[in-house]
Write a structure and sequence with these properties.
The chain is an alpha/beta fold. The protein has helices spanning 17-21, 51-55, 77-82, 88-98, 139-150, 161-171, 192-206, 245-251; strands at residues 27-31, 37-41, 102-108, 114-119, 155-158, 179-182, 210-217, 226-231, 236-240. The protein has a 4-stranded mixed β-sheet with strand order 4-3-5-6, sandwiched between helices. Strand 5, helix 6 and strand 6 (179-182) form a beta-alpha-beta unit. Helix 5 (139-150) packs across helix 6. The mean pLDDT is 92.
């Protein structure tokens, strides 16, 4: 009886598409010792259809596709300041919402875990803006996006290249002109457990909980951006990315997800 989706767990990107692919709801995503999510199969529910493995995009060679390249940025300077790379995501999201659609993207929850959420109006987009250098939980969002698309509701889905591939796998080849995807040049995703431990370190040093944070605070410049924490007691922490301990480990590839070291989705 199947216990997981990939025979080689190091190939699994943790996108969570298999959760919605499974016709028996036999798969859940469970964290390992580093906080990375991996699929776990309920042997009592599994009927060995193997659909999860057959449609899983991990471990496969991705076909080459021609690319047409354009450069763009939002004209709104305030919006650019709130964004990491020019604000184009928000412009696209506004248009999808205007069409009655739903936008999915990564946001921090109250515990500073990163998960994909859905936005039905523009006021809900702010949490999706800005980089989050930690892997997000996208399993529910992928399933919800597929459900909306099958009802012919427009969807914008923003995520890592492997998460986008997971969404396409969950769609199972269903043709739709209602889907707009936004990915980015990905450095790899660091351990959620390391991130959680780092937040604890910062909050203990401040003696207070985090009220706001940014991985790309531009007050020190667009190229020499900083990691910044604001705390409920009014104190703050700011350190340039090349000096901050968490970012140093991330940029040196010390604690990325195993699949990131042999990424099949890079271009």
């Amino acid at each position: 009886m199947r216990q997981t989706v990939r025979k080689n767990p190091a190939e699994c990107t943790g996108c969570g598409a298999c959760v919605s692919i499974c016709p028996k709801q036999a798969i859940t995503m469970q964290p390992d010792a580093e906080g990375f999510l991996y699929p776990k199969v309920d042997g009592e529910k599994c009927v060995s259809c193997d659909l999860c493995e057959k449609r899983c995009p991990a471990g496969r060679e991705m076909p080459e596709r021609p690319a047409h390249l354009f450069g763009a940025q939002a004209k709104d300077e305030a919006l650019r300041g709130q964004s990491s790379s020019g604000g184009v995501f928000t412009l696209l999201a506004r248009e999808v919402i205007r069409q009655g659609g739903v936008v999915f993207g990564a946001a921090f929850d109250e515990a500073l875990h990163v998960e994909h959420i859905g936005a039905f109006d523009e006021s809900e987009l702010s949490g999706m803006r800005g980089s989050k250098y930690v892997q997000s939980d996208a399993a529910d969002a992928i399933g919800n996006a597929v459900s909306l698309l099958k009802r012919d509701i427009p969807v914008l889905f923003s995520g890592t290249p492997c998460q986008i591939s997971g969404l396409m796998a969950a769609l199972g080849g269903t043709k739709t002109d209602k889907l707009l995807t936004v990915d980015f040049v990905c450095h790899g995703v660091p351990s959620p457990m390391i991130w959680s431990d780092y937040v604890d370190i910062r909050e203990k040093a401040a003696g207070s909980q985090t009220s706001n944070l940014s991985f790309r605070n531009k007050s020190t410049g667009w190229k020499s951006y900083s990691v910044s924490f604001e705390f409920s007691n009014g104190s703050n922490y700011m350190q340039r990315s090349l000096s901050d301990n968490y970012m140093k480990g991330f940029l040196k590839d010390i604690y990325l997800r195993p699949s990131c070291y042999s990424c099949a989705f890079k271009t």
